[in-house]
Amino acid sequence: LTAIVIEDHTVPVVSFQSWFRVGSVDEKPGLTGVSHLFEHLMFKGTPKFGPRAFFNELEAKGAEVNAYTTRDYTVYYENMVPALLDRAIEMEADRLENLSINDENFQSERLVVFEERKLRVDNSPEGKMQEALWSLAFHRHPYRFPVIGYPQDLAALTLEQVQTYFKGHYHPANATLVVVG
């Protein structure tokens, strides 16, 4: 685990970020979109902290909670008052160890990703163009895969594949924690 801490008292805010070296570059044909799917699954909760706990506990107290996936990494972040930092760290540690990856969560978030794909790619001329350009520019490199994945690959994903992907990529040796504030 790599940790980067920068103390800065300029404003009474802290940003806690969990960076994972996992993105569409880690995918292969037939398994595209799984990195982005985890961006969603990571908010489905644990036995200790139920679904949407990051939003219910932190955003309810003014925090900004979000995540994003790129070709090379996935980032989860909370921008908040310093008093919430310990709770955010506790929640992040718990979801890395005890994330609820079950069929119900998997199926519901896969549907969300399908809808997101329709909005950002299938029904967007710019999205279609971007997908085509990356595919043409990178014939053999995994950068050719869209971060959001191909619909046929998302539809064929199994719960076992998703669980295996999580174990292979979401662990301390593949993470960098950043705390600034």
Q: Class by helix and strand content?
A: alpha+beta
- Write down how many β-strands occur, each being a DSSP E stretch of 2 or more residues: 5
Assembly status = single chain
Measure the end-to-end span.
20 Å
The biggest beta sheet is recorded as: 5 strands, mixed
The helix count comes to 7
Task: Provide the succession of SSEs.
Answer: EEHHEEHHHHHE
Coarse morphology: globular
The chain-level mean pLDDT equals 96
The amount of helix comes to: 40-55%
Note poorly predicted spans.
Answer: none
Strands in their spatial order, largest beta sheet: 1-5-2-4-3
How big is the Rg? Answer: 17 Å
Strand fraction band? 15-25%
Could you give the topology of this structure?
Layout (H helix, E strand, L loop, with lengths): L1 E5 L7 E7 L13 H8 L11 H6 L5 E6 L4 E7 L4 H14 L4 H20 L2 H13 L13 H6 L2 H11 L5 E6 L1
Parallel strand pairs: 1-5
Antiparallel strand pairs: 2-4, 2-5, 3-4
Give structural attributes:
5-stranded mixed sheet; 7 helices; 17% strand; globular
Description:
The chain is about 45% helix and about 15% strand. The chain is an alpha+beta fold. A five-stranded mixed beta sheet has the order 1-5-2-4-3. α1 (about 35-40) crosses α4.
Structure in a nutshell:
The protein is an alpha+beta fold.
